[in-house]
Amino acid sequence: MARRGRRPLGGPDTREAILSAARELFADRGYQATTMRAVGARAGVDPALIHHYFGTKDGLLQAALVLPVDPVELLAGVAADPARTGEQVVLRILRLWDDPAVQHRMVGLLRVGLSHPHTVDVLRDMLGRTVLVALVGHAAPDSAPLRAALVGSQIGGLLLGRYLVGVPPLAQASVDELAAAVGPTVQRYLTEPLDLPP
Amino acid sequence: MARRGRRPLGGPDTREAILSAARELFADRGYQATTMRAVGARAGVDPALIHHYFGTKDGLLQAALVLPVDPVELLAGVAADPARTGEQVVLRILRLWDDPAVQHRMVGLLRVGLSHPHTVDVLRDMLGRTVLVALVGHAAPDSAPLRAALVGSQIGGLLLGRYLVGVPPLAQASVDELAAAVGPTVQRYLTEPLDLPP
């Protein structure tokens, strides 16, 4: 629903209101059909202010796809008990996503990111600079980029299945059950031999 | 681009042209903004014919999200060598998706399915009736639905990462490398103890 009246210029609230409106509209109408004018109307701000903060529509998209939490910080210290690194990675990510506010924002972010070839490019670059960098930091040096991407494939599929699609066994399992089931997968991808063909 | 002229009534070509147009429009504009009239225009058929074949817009969506291959058939015999069931599951699915025509259709199907709360419901029901049923048929009896869903989460994340998002290490790896890396994960989810907490 569009907010009535105009917000005062400037301030972090205005910026966040614009981003929240942009995420909703990109998700509902698609990236191409969303105009700066429509984002301004939904956020209750003059479209000129959106240009002031974010430049182009692409700048607005980039800002809308910023993660709410830094993955490097989220995963700091997961290898304190090296045999349980995988379990810790799964636990920390699922505990974060079980927070309804984080979940709402991340589901919206994924919906926007997967919706259009251009938003997919922005999503892939963002994941490469953030999530994959954080995971490479905990991966064995041989094939570290592949190891990080394999972890990303498992965790990404789990998050989509549990929170976006709502596949019943994944949505109904406890965080501890999923950490026990998926932790060894992440552990193997990060630290154990992958036995790739020559 | 809209095709010029009208197709002759009836025939599987007409039905497939309607479905193909519907998948394109649902993916580009979203489910809500897509009208039967627009699908008819793109397919070069009278909208009344769409109603004749598919009933409502929801019926058209259901038909647009039908898988091009039956997963039960695709996975028949994967347990011929029981120690390599996981590897066979990954190999068969990736070989199928590496076919450009299948890949194009499946990427479009996922894009449509993930785009809107209603299309997500239809996607989840379809996956439950097809992919998860096929996987449960190869899972150990304890926690079989969870095992199938875990496999789905890993394979789904791999397919999204390789084909839809194009994460470089996943997109550039060979099918054999991915089967070696991911096969043991699928094997464990299907057949080995999950060590769930009590």
Report on this model:
The first copy, chain A, is built from 12 helices and no strands. By secondary structure, chain A is an all-alpha fold. Chain A has 2 domains: 12-64, Orthogonal Bundle (Arc Repressor Mutant, subunit A), CATH 1.10.10.60; 71-191, Orthogonal Bundle (Tetracycline Repressor, domain 2). In chain A, α1 crosses α2, α1 (12-29) crosses α4 (57-64) and α3 (47-54) packs across α4. At the A-B interface, α8, α10, α11 and α12 of A face α8, α10, α11 and α12 of B.
Main traits of this protein?
homodimer, Arc Repressor Mutant, subunit A, 2 domains
Count of β-strands of chain A: 0
Structural class of chain A, please?
mainly alpha
The major β-sheet of chain A equals: none
Q: Which series of helices and strands of chain A comes N to C? A: HHHHHHHHHHHH
List the helices and strands and how they pair.
The structure is a homodimer of 198-residue chains.
Chain A: H1 12-29, H2 36-43, H3 47-54, H4 57-64, H5 71-74, H6 85-97, H7 100-113, H8 117-129, H9 131-136, H10 144-165, H11 168-172, H12 175-191
Short description:
The structure is a homodimer of 198-residue chains. With 198 residues, chain A is mostly helical.
